Amino acid sequence: TVPLGIAPTLAGTIRNAYNSAANQIADLDLLATRFGDFGKGNIKKAKCSPDAFIQMALQAAFYKQRGFFVQTYESASARLYRDGRTETIRSCSQESCDFVRTFLNYNGETDGPDAKAHLQKLLRVACEKHVLTSTMAGSGRGVDRHLFALYVVSVGTETDSPFLQSVMKHGWKLSTSQIPQQQANNEWLPGHNGDLIPRPSGGFGPVADDGYGVSYVICGEDSFFFHVSSKRSCPDTDSTVFRDAIFDALHKMNSLF
After folding, report:
1. H-helix or E-strand containing 133?
2. pLDDT in tens for each of the 257 residues of the chain?
3. Which DSSP helix (H) or strand (E) runs through 20?
């Protein structure tokens, strides 16, 4: 009900905004789930970066569900610089694709020790490439903010650039971010590092109508927390199916070590 005293035109605008928000909320398929079977402690023993390990699981899960690779966004902090905010880590690389293809064709111990050792190597190489990409993005050597600035200049100066227009048209069907678990250290009890009191933190929606949004928290040494989102109106996405595919990939990747 619109309160009395509001002009009819404004009342109509408020109703439209409410209906639009209600429709978007109803269309959001969001899951928030704790993964407690293992955590970064196991991953570090495998000599992999925990964040890179999770990103490779996301790549494997997406390829298994959809059958193709997509450019993937992961946010990197640019706080080394004054007024710096974020840069893009492009998680999908040639190295990650090489790992995923081999990983999804791996038949476990029946393939023999050589196949397992080869897959371990591919995973570590993919993780190392992800760490390098993350380091470059966080130290001002990413590409996406630079390309966006050039695109803004081209629009502002009315300079036609088919290349920049093509770059901006590529959406992010897989948008991801690792969220820090401890933003208020005094709230944690002595001896608790996040495993006993996991903090879900915040999630976000997909940035593409046919994509996923994945936010995750690395909780202590033995668990993770995932937010997986998609749009119910898209027939090609399902947050429950994708969440299960991520967890399945994590389990199988962990079994390699």
Report:
1. helix 113-138
2. 556 678 888 888 999 999 999 999 999 999 999 999 999 999 999 999 999 999 999 999 999 999 999 999 999 988 888 888 889 999 999 999 999 999 999 887 777 889 999 999 999 999 999 999 999 998 988 999 999 999 999 999 999 999 998 988 888 999 999 987 665 555 555 555 556 666 667 789 999 999 999 999 998 788 899 999 999 999 999 999 999 999 999 999 999 98
3. helix 8-27
The pTM score is 0.88
Local structure of residue 189 (DSSP, 8 states): P
The backbone torsions φ and ψ at residue 73, rounded to the nearest 5 degrees and listed phi first, read -100, 130
List, as one string, the DSSP characters of 191-215: T--SSSS---------SSTT-EEEE
CA distances from 12 to 24, 91, 222 (A): 18, 44, 51
User: Is there a contact between 35 and 247 (Cβ–Cβ < 8 Å)?
Assistant: yes
